[in-house]
Each structure stands twice: as structure tokens, then as C-alpha cells.
Amino acid sequence: MSLVSDLIAVLGRDRVLDDRLDSWTYGKDAGVFRGEADVVVLPESTEEVAEIVRVAERHSTSIVPRGAGTGLAGGAVPVDRNVIVSMIRMNEITDVDPENRTAWVGPGVVNLDLSRHTEVHGLHFAPDPSSQSACTIGGNVGNNSGGPHCLAEGTTVNHVLAVEVVLAGGEVVTVGGGAPDPIGLDLRGILVGSEGTLGIVTKVLVKLTPNAPDVRTLLCAFDSVEDAARAVSGIIAAGVVPAALELMDQRMTEAVENWLKAGLPTDAAAILLAEVSGGTAAVKAEAAVIREVATSSGASSVSLAADEAERQILWKARKSAFGAVAQTAPDYYLHDTTVPRTRLVEAMTEAYAIGDKYDLVMMNVFHAGDGNLHPLMTFDASQPGSFERVRAAADEIVEMCVSKGGVLSGEHGIGKEKRDLMGLMFDAPALDAQARIKEAFDPGGLFNPHKILPQGSRCFDFGRTVPVPDGAWI
Ligand SMILES: Cc1cc2nc3c(=O)[nH]c(=O)nc-3n(C[C@H](O)[C@H](O)[C@H](O)COP(=O)(O)OP(=O)(O)OC[C@H]3O[C@@H](n4cnc5c(N)ncnc54)[C@H](O)[C@@H]3O)c2cc1C
Description:
The chain has helices at residues 3-11, 20-25, 46-58, 111-118, 137-143, 150-153, 187-191, 225-237, 250-260, 280-296, 308-319, 321-325, 344-357, 386-403, 428-441, and strands at 16-17, 39-41, 63-66, 83-86, 93-97, 102-105, 123-124, 160-166, 172-176, 200-207, 209-210, 214-222, 244-249, 270-278, 299-304, 331-334, 337-338, 361-367, 372-373, 375-379, 460-461, 464-465. It is α+β, with helices and mostly antiparallel strands. Strands 15-12-14-13-18-20-16 form a seven-stranded antiparallel sheet, with helices on both faces. A hairpin with a 4-residue loop joins strand 5 and strand 6 (102-105). The protein binds flavin-adenine dinucleotide. The site of flavin-adenine dinucleotide (FAD) has 37 residues, from strand 3, helix 5 and strand 10.
């Protein structure tokens, strides 16, 4: 029987998509890369996922797990002609345990829906990517995603206690557990952030965070990006770790205002959105420190959101920023890299200089408190050479950030986008160690091939250098 017939035998005709349009539609995420899937399947249970894995193995076809496809690094983009396993129908939330602040969650649950579901218990899921109204918990686990409020709370890995995963051979295992300090090797830690290269996550035990009793959001305007970046380091050096600390430059502010009319100051060179949360006395004191540091760093104005409605508008503006850019240009490339917070000022200056060198329009809106830059470059893909210029600028920005002690990606993952840049951070033995982990989980190279690890990662074999065949799992 053919691959498609075998999959239909497992799932029925309706949940196996194999026409050209489906292959094309599922051939992309929210980033700039495109592939084409062989077939797309929509499982509804762990047993079905296990059976899909067995079918794919029988037909020597690799698998790409997929959530909502909002990833920006090409993680869910097929490179060979793969089976795309879309997890969106596995979207049940069960066993909400308000006392222990946990819940079991299907990988297809949309991030924001989880927090809405647990709101009745005064709890939420802390990682809040700006894409949270669309992205899934499975994708958050795949990419170890962050978000504006991960500065104080940590990224997804800090909020996942256990993961049920389907491995090669269709074997189902659960790693981690409810205990705060589980014993044994931390396989949960390895799976979170593995971008679908080790197995398919079918269930997640998440940690829920209590909603803060009081929250205040400040909007600080600056006459230069450098002053705003200096205020970021100053606030944390003053002993305050805000719940969120987000920076938006003037071009981005204009793009958002043109669309949302949120009342942002478009005459400012940069704005800083700072949020503090907790008990009222602490929140008041921290807001006062932020006001003081922002002012002494050169802020031209500092205002406090007057009420919850105003606060929500500010966050809508921040979280809609990338969408707003769609009005300014046909295409954009959103980049993700980090520098130590103390080097934010110089990194920002150099990033803009790189944009100028390649004659690109660059905008910035980013998680400044984490030193997580998101230079966004607009372009028109129909213009020959324009994408190549953007890629060249992007690679130069990554190299600059890594040379300052930063890392390749703050949250979007490596995927297809940055796999060939891994050598900037990892030497051959370090890449080999990671490749051995991949091999232990996935000896046949079934899961999401050609992602994360560059060709040639598996270069040592007890001290011998062994060539890696083309098209292998790395
Ligand atoms: C406008 C916009 C704003 C964004 N803001 C942020 C942000 O603030 N912070 C941030 O971190 N990211 C952000 N992102 C990137 C993206 O939304 C996140 O990476 C998100 O977690 C991806 O989730 P998804 O469901 O769309 O996953 P997908 O894009 O479908 O997949 C992402 C990766 O996870 C793997 N995967 C998916 N499901 C599973 C599974 N069940 N088992 C194993 N592997 C799986 C895929 O193979 C792929 O490698 C943003 C994207 C957009 C478009």
C-alpha cells in the first residue's frame, strides 16, 4: 500500500490531506522559508500519532511536527518531502489542579486559550509570546518560547513539568513529573526546545502561575534609542526585575500607530514599556524606581497606564507590532538574537549601521530586559536580490551579537534559518555531543531532518573523523 493509503487506514480520508494546495499551504511557517509537504495528517490521539510514526518509518518518510505554524525560523517547514503532523486537533485541557497549580494540556491548545481557561482559578500560563492568540503549547515547547513576561518568569522550559512524547518506533514515554525536583536524567529539559527533532509531544504537564494582585504599566518616551537601552540596564542594575521591559523604536511605533491608533508618542525616538506586578506596596515602589531611572537616563516623558483598559491598549500595541508592519511593505524578515544586557546600547547602534550598509529599512521592537533583539527588515521579495541583501544583513547582525557574548536565538529557535550559523557558537565536539543525543532518540533520522544541527555535526567517532552522508538526519 502507498504511504497515503496507509495513513488513511489509520485516520480516515478526512484527516489526511494530500492535494497540491494542502502541500503548499503547510509548506511554510510565519518566517521566510518555504518547502512542500508530501502529505499532511491531523491526529486526534496519542495512539494515532504513534501509528503515524510507524507508518512513516515503514515508508522511510520523515516527519515534521507542526503546531500553528507561527514559528519564524522554519522549524515547521518541510525540507524533504515529509509527512507534516499537525497537532492542532489535540487541544484538550484536562486535570486542572488549582491547588498544585498544574494542568495536563494537549499540544494543540492555543497559548492564550490556556490562560483564559484557568483564569477562573486566578492562574495563567506565564510564557506569553506576542503570537499567543495563535501559537500552540506544542510549538511553545518545541521552541522553548519566551514572551514579554518571561523576563521575570523565565521561558517555557521553566513552566513545563512533564512531557508525553512519541518516539521512534511509535514508543510512548512520559518524561519529568509533578514533583518539583524529579530524579534521573533531565530528558524533559532536552525535549523542551528540541524543535520537533527528537519526537512528537502529545501531552504537556504545565505549571500555572498565580495572577498578580496588582499590576502597573509605565510608558517611557526617549529622544534616542541609546538612552532607552541605557535605561533598561539601569532599571535592572537598580535592583528591579520588572515583569516586562519592552523597547520599540520610532519606525515601529509609527507603523503601530498608523494601524491601531493606540496613542503612542510617534515623536519619540524610542519607547519603553515597563510593567511591574505583585503586592501593591512593592509594585508602587518598583514603579517609582523605574520612573526615576528612566528620567535620569534622559526620558522625555514617563506615564502610568491610568486603568486596566489603557494597560490593555498598550499591550495590544506591543503584541500587534509585527502584524502592523504588513501595511508598510510586502515582506519582512524578523530576526532574533541576543546580547548581554550591558552591551545593548552598542549592539543597537551597530545593528542600525548594518541595516544602513545594506540599504534596508530596519525597525525594532524587542524584549529589551533579556537583551533579546528583534531587528525587523522590510523588503519586497519580487525585487531580485532583495532577500539576499536581507539575509546577508541578518547574518552580520548575528555574528556581531555573538561576538559580544550573545547567542544565536533568544526564543525563535534555530530551525532551518540558523542551522548553518551554529558553528559560531559551538565547536566540533560540542556539535557532536548534541548530534549523539539526536542519534540516541532518533537513530533513523525520522523527526524533522535538516533542522538545528548543521551538516557534518556528527564528526567524531571515538576520536576518528567520519564523513557524514548527504541528506542524513543532520
Ligand atoms: C507575530 C509573531 C510574534 C511572535 N512573538 C514571539 C514571542 O514573543 N516569543 C517567542 O518565543 N516567539 C514568538 N513568535 C514565534 C512563534 O510564535 C513561537 O515560536 C511559537 O511558540 C510557535 O508555536 P506554533 O504552534 O506556531 O509552532 P510551529 O511554528 O508550528 O512549530 C514550531 C516548532 O515546534 C515544533 N513542534 C510543534 N508542535 C510540536 C509537537 N507537538 N511536538 C514536537 N515538536 C513540535 C515544530 O516542528 C517546529 O520546529 C512570534 C511569531 C509571530 C508570527
